[in-house]
Amino acid sequence: MKTAVVTDSTAYIPKELRDKLNIHMIPLSVIFGNETYREEIDLHADEFYEEIKTKGLPTTSQPTTGEFVTLFEKLAKDFDAVINIHLSSGISGTYQGAITAGNLVEDIEVYAYDSEISCMMQGLYAIEAAEMANAGKGPEEIIARLDEMKKSMRAYFMVDDLSHLQRGGRLSSAQAIIGSMLQVKPLLHFVDKVIVPFEKIRTRKKAMKRIADMLEEDAASGEAYRAVIFQGKREEEAQEWKTELEAKLPNVEFTISYFGPVIASHLGEGAMGLGWVKK
């Protein structure tokens, strides 16, 4: 069975890597007034942070059922099955959209996979799936491996301003108000597919240290890990953090990624995070 791998744009996998592994990408969009931009196609992270200086934060939208159907029909010409790996169903309807479209398309088996997370942690699932598909593995074996990855996957992030999450309905008003009043840097994470507070910490530096300490606890087992640093227009800070962590944790392979337009619309500039998973 020949299997295709699809993910959405919020995985933020570099285009050259998507092309190398034959990962197909369906974009979510950001909307400034009457202007709609497909992220990773019409608008990239660096451009986005410039746009919001004059236009403010946009709204976001998921792919339409028709866009999914068009993609699946195209893939059906060369593949028997497709695994769709999408951002958490608790913050977007993209995963459900893939299921709906899959039921409308013949000649290809559609397997939708809820990453229950987003950004490059979602991307790690897609990369693993693509490597296995390219090696001739079938959908069931690939999904079993993704489920195994999910057991050890962890990610935490913080934002400079909780109001963006509250405005987008990703965090309750009460939590946003309390965080703003106390001027805390709450650590956030995904639980049961939605974003919830993990701990409230007073400063950015202490919040980053707390996340790093949790990675260090897991990595103390000596097992090999992959870790991703996420940043919202904080490239230099991310690079410094990476250098610091690499010196402490030789069994962890680090990469730096970013919060692209759709996710950054809810987190705002200055967000920072760290995620990891066993190799």
Description of the structure:
With 279 residues, the protein is an alpha/beta fold. It has two domains: 3-28 and 63-151, Rossmann fold, CATH 3.40.50; 154-278, Hypothetical Protein Tm841, Chain: A,domain 3, CATH 3.30.1180. 43% of the residues lie in helices and 25% in strands. The protein has eleven helices and 13 strands. The protein has helices at 15-21, 45-55, 65-75, 94-102, 119-134, 139-152, 163-167, 173-182, 204-219, 235-248, 261-267; strands at residues 3-8, 23-26, 29-32, 35-38, 59-61, 81-86, 109-114, 154-158, 187-191, 194-199, 225-231, 252-258, 272-278. A six-stranded mixed beta sheet has the order 10-9-8-13-11-12, sandwiched between helices. Strands 2-1-6-7 form a four-stranded parallel beta sheet, sandwiched between helices. Helix 5 (119-134) packs antiparallel against helix 6. The longest helix has 16 residues, at 119-134. It is globular. The chain starts with a strand and ends with a strand. InterPro entries: DegV, DegV_C, DegV_domain_contain. This is DegV family protein. Keywords: Lipid-binding. GO terms for molecular function: lipid binding.
